[in-house]
Amino acid sequence: MNMIFFLIGCSILLALLFLAAFFWASKTGQHDDTYTPSVRILFDDELMAPEAEKPIDQAIEKRDEDHT
Amino acid sequence: MLQENSVLIKQHCFHCGENMADEFFLSDDKKFCCLGCRTVYDLLSKHNLSNYYAYNDVPGQTQRSNIHHFEYLDVKEISAQLVDYEDERRTIITLYIPAIHCSSCIWLLENLYQLQPAVLQSRIDFLKKQVSITFRNQEISLREVAELLAAIGYPPLINAQDTGKTNSGNNTERSLITKIAVAGFCFGNVMLLSFPDYFGLGDFEREFSRFFGWLNLAFSLPIILYSGTGYFISAWNNLKARRLNLDFPLALGIAVMFVRSVYEIVWETGAGFVDTLCGLVFFLLIGRWMQQRTFHHISFERDYRSYFPVAVTTIKGNKEIAKPLGDLKTGDRIMVRSMEIIPADAILLKGEAEIDFSFVTGEAEPIKKVLGEIVYAGGRQLAGALEMEVIKPVSQSYLTRLWNNDAFVKPKNNIKTFSDTVSRYFSIALLAIAIGAALFWLPTDLHKSIASFTAVLIIACPCALALSSPFTLAAAISIFDKSGFYVKNTSVVEELARIDTFVFDKTGTITSPDAASLIFSGMVNEEQKQLISDLSRNSGHPLSRELSKHLNKASIYSVDSYTEKIGRGVSGRVNGNYVKLGSSAFLGLPLINSPENSTVHVMINDQYLGYFMLKQQWRKGFKELTLKLGTWADLHLLSGDKPADKRNLIPFFSDSANLHFEQSPQQKLDYILQLQKNGRKVLMLGDGLNDSGALKQSDLGIAVTDNVNNFTPGCDGVLDGAGFHKIPQFLQQARDSVKVIHMSFGISLCYNAVGLFFAVQGQLSPLIAAILMPLSTITIISFTTIAVRAFARKNKLL
């Protein structure tokens, strides 16, 4: 039954870990705005794909091609 | 069906959804109401950002009046006060953008880097309507960022109160959440560790009991030393001020629980009350959080600085230089453009001044000023640009002097809440019972005497009592929120229930600023109406615009030999007819007995046809509102305007002696003070700078506004104009909420009585305490929430 001391120690350590994670989240402002992320996640991210990294240049190139 | 749909689409602007005027702008087969909307569309489609229009129909806002000046952001000392962070490479700034309203806005503003590569990141806080932008300051200036935002239809609103902003509000909320997290963590662990003891331990498990006990004690330390400290501090401060509030029995309960737990665990006489202690603090903190939680982000502590711009354009030689508002000195030459606010008392040097003082004086009609006249600060210039010379610095001008008046400086009396009143008697009764129980057992059993004394203080710890007010009022606030009534804090709801006198401001409060109606007296036929409409369309004067809107005719004829005397009238040849519109003096009429309201006289081919009269319209439901409120409370009217509407208003107010016109801001304040001296609880409804003193002085000051993001003076609540007719329902709901608080106080006292029954006998086991405390808490939380919502349904607020 002495195992129980070890197990309780483990569980408290784990709980402390979660508490620390919560502190970190709170400190980095993750609870400041709880609404916007719920909208943000629904956006399609095709424009943020790698090939769109320089959208301005691409758009200009495309426009120039269209002109010629 | 399909055709009908397409017709509908044609009539609305693709960008902002406004009804299309007869002329429109085309781009990519899409129609736009104005050049501004089309420009935004072109800009976005050029940068592959057309998804903006995919997430929502008509996500934009009309760009008809999109003149924004951000030159002042180039001035180092101004921009330094606005940015959050700046180094040699990057600048981070948080800007308030009132136009943010849908998911398209979030998408577009967070994809700002596609429009301008120098923007590294932009994050939206939707509820606060703020965007936080990080940009490379070598490549783009703050001014260019602001201009970029304005170009895509999201002009940031920057006012003088933004300079020197603080984030203190955020920090206190964060620290409360951290406290709740610690309390919750301890509570959960302690509860788990206490279970074996509640269920009874076998003999050979006794060694665990000690271990669990000491562990529990360790978990209670953060509760006492960190999470619960607020209660000790508050109780101590209140005792010093010779007040007994609810924090006193709470702090006493917490302290007694801790001491008794330490004693029991150290001497191994019992399991202690650590479980109840942690649970108590945890629930109490949640209640406090509910009380502080704001559902919206309206600033209630605004002063005149949030009405004024950050910077003023001054003229030196031939150059225009932006200067911070505070640096404006006597003798400076300033430039005030159309729709800008006059920042300081100044002499008019150049330009046609037509100034809207409705916010400052309550006067609905624009006032004209001639060259050389003194113009007081606060008015909004409606006509073209003005050049003026400052005669008094901003802090000493007429308007801001009012703001430095005593009524503004002294803090408002704290609203006395029901729980404050009750807690005094509660604390005394509690101490009496505890001492009584101790004295009863003292002669026979010293140990039992101490046990019963501490048990009474533990079990009667008014947790449920402390939670009933915050939960009831928070529920009421969230219901108010849904109807467009935003209040500053929970005690406003309690105060609202006590109001017996209503004071209304006129302009902008009971009149709707947009819904003015024109009434014509005289005779015109349709053809003549067409001529009038075509002529008035050419003028930018508010009355002319109102007139062409009212006549609602498509333009047919063009106007020849058009002349306009600003503020007096217009004339021109339309389809061969000579049409004149304007004041009676402009038309050369004898000064006939025309009403005082703004009138536009009509003359076609030198024949007088009659006049249009602008009449303010009452807000929707005003009549029903006064009828209903009149039975509950006294109604008063304080207007800064001329008594032109007095006759129309008498039917609404039961006592015509309560109607007061031409009141200065100071007189309004004094009037409220007089009412309060007669023992009245006054609610003031106002909208502008002119009643800010009265709003502050009254027991409850509510600002009525049609755009919650516009300037509203410092007040206790903001009411959206659309919810104006619901005021009687709000009042009823507030009264019902107070009833709910009374009921839940009753319920929690019942729980206390049950607990006390065990406690006075000195038989309180930790198990009973551990059951009673959470049970009473949950009962109260669910009862208050359900009851408030039920009342809201009854009051048709849900």
UniProtKB/TrEMBL annotation, chain A:
One Pfam family in the UniProt entry: FixS
Organism superkingdom: Bacteria
PANTHER family: FIXS PROTEIN
The name this protein goes by in its record: Cbb3-type cytochrome oxidase assembly protein CcoS
TrEMBL record, chain B:
One protein family per Pfam: E1-E2_ATPase
Record flagged with keyword Ribonucleoprotein: no
Domain P-type ATPase A: 309-403
UniProt membrane topology term: Multi-pass membrane protein
UniProt xrefs under InterPro entries: ATPase-cat-bd, ATPase_P-typ_cyto_dom_N, ATPase_P-typ_P_site, ATPase_P-typ_TM_dom_sf, ATPase_P-typ_transduc_dom_A_sf, ATPase_P-type_domA, HAD-like_sf, HAD_sf
Record domain Putative metal-binding: where: 12-85
Assigned keywords, A-Z: Cell membrane, Hydrolase, Ion transport, Magnesium, Membrane, Metal-binding, Phosphoprotein, Translocase, Transmembrane, Transmembrane helix, Transport
Molecular-function GO terms, alphabetical: ATP binding; ATP hydrolysis activity; copper ion binding; P-type divalent copper transporter activity
An individual GO BP term: copper ion homeostasis
Record keyword Ribonucleoprotein present: no
Any one of the GO CC terms: plasma membrane
Cell compartments where the protein resides: Cell membrane
Transmembrane segments: 180-199, 211-232, 269-287, 425-444, 450-480, 740-761, 767-792
Family: Belongs to the cation transport ATPase (P-type) (TC 3.A.3) family. Type IB subfamily.
Protein name: HAD family hydrolase
Annotated source species: Pedobacter psychroterrae
